[in-house]
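2024-03-11 09:14:02 INFO worker-7 job=invfold-0412 stage=load source=structure_tokens
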């Protein structure tokens, strides 16, 4: 007896089934004492002002949020000296990256990202039918010459994380300007500055200056990292006027929730809390780098709130073995196979207890 022919069903656009889904950092077993150091979350949590504003927003949950995000855009503009009309808010910077790809990419187009760049870039590119072009890095740093060498007449967007996740490295502003100068004027340079607040280097600039001067640069930022609002999904982009107009035409009319908007205002106006978070990160980033290096591990120098830690290749001491050992002790790091770095783990800077625990566990593992 022959099997019945399969019934037709709706089909996704070509190429969608070939996209590797984004896999977030694991969280560990529920109920057990776990140090989650896999998702670059701040160990200090959100500002008390953000928590207070979030709680107050619970009284108006029956009402739609302000679709224009006016109060938050004004608060961001005041904090950084920007034009509020050129700020677009989104459900995390992830949504803004997706909106940019949706607006500027289609079949036949190309977009470039670096070898170990954020995994959302190729997803956004391919989801819109465009071709993702990978530029190799040099010693885990973005390589301007490699990016420019891959620009063609079909290139529409360059996605550059600066600082980069997961490597923690950054491009000095002079190199970013050199990259921009080498691009055609109809190519959009997207500077993803999710970790900008952590950078303490005189030669770094997040992207405001270029956005202010040119029509083909966008800077994206997030409230998920230093501001501790990852659960609320909140981000913003600073754009040329024509790009802001484009994104506002295609985003959802109420794409950011009212509690997120309220908490965002509380967070961005609490400068003292942000400075405390910066100081904590600067202290423990240096301490962890020193301690892990002393154990014989290679650590890529980072300006973010995380470290890329490289392990020996021999069985029993490699990155997968280290991950298994740490997980058994309630310490969760991020595996890097998805980023093409199977020999490394990414370690988020935690609180003092977590930082000391991971060093002690790795010392035991390597003994």
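2024-03-11 09:14:09 INFO worker-7 stage=emit residues=367
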């Amino acid at each position: 007896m022959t099997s019945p022919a399969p019934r037709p069903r709706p089909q996704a656009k070509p190429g969608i089934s070939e996209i590797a889904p984004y896999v977030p950092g694991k969280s560990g077993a529920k109920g057990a004492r776990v140090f989650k150091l896999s998702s670059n979350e701040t160990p200090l949590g959100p500002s008390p002002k953000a928590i207070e504003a979030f709680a107050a927003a619970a009284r108006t949950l029956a009402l739609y949020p302000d679709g224009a995000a006016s109060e938050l855009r004004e608060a961001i503009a005041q904090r950084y000296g920007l034009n509020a009309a050129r700020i677009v808010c989104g459900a995390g910077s992830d949504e803004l990256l997706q909106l940019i790809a949706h607006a500027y990419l289609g079949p036949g187009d190309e977009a470039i990202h670096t070898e170990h760049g954020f995994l959302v870039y190729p997803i956004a590119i391919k989801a819109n039918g465009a071709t993702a072009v990978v530029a190799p890095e040099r010693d885990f740093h973005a390589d301007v010459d490699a990016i420019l060498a891959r620009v063609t007449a079909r290139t529409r967007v360059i996605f550059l994380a600066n600082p980069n996740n997961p490597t923690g490295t950054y491009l000095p502003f002079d190199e970013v300007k050199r990259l921009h100068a080498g691009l055609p004027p109809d190519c959009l340079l997207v500077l993803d500055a999710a970790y900008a607040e952590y950078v303490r280097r005189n030669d770094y600039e997040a992207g405001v200056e270029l956005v202010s001067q040119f029509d083909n640069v966008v800077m994206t930022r997030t409230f998920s990292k230093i501001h501790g609002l990852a659960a609320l999904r909140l981000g913003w982009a600073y754009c040329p006027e024509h790009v802001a107009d484009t994104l506002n035409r295609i985003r959802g009319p109420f794409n950011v929730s009212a509690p997120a908007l309220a908490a965002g205002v509380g967070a961005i106006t609490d400068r003292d809390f942000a400075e405390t978070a910066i100081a904590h990160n600067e202290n423990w980033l240096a301490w962890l780098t020193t301690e892990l290096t002393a154990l014989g591990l290679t650590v890529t120098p980072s300006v973010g709130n995380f470290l890329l830690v490289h392990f020996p290749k021999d069985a029993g001491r490699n990155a997968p073995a280290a991950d298994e050992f740490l997980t058994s002790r309630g310490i969760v790091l991020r595996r890097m196979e998805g980023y093409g770095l199977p020999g490394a783990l990414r370690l988020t800077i935690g609180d003092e207890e977590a930082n000391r625990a991971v060093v002690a566990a790795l010392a035991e593992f390597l003994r």
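2024-03-11 09:14:09 INFO worker-7 stage=report msg="The chain has two domains: 23-45+272-366, 48-269."
2024-03-11 09:14:10 INFO worker-7 job finished
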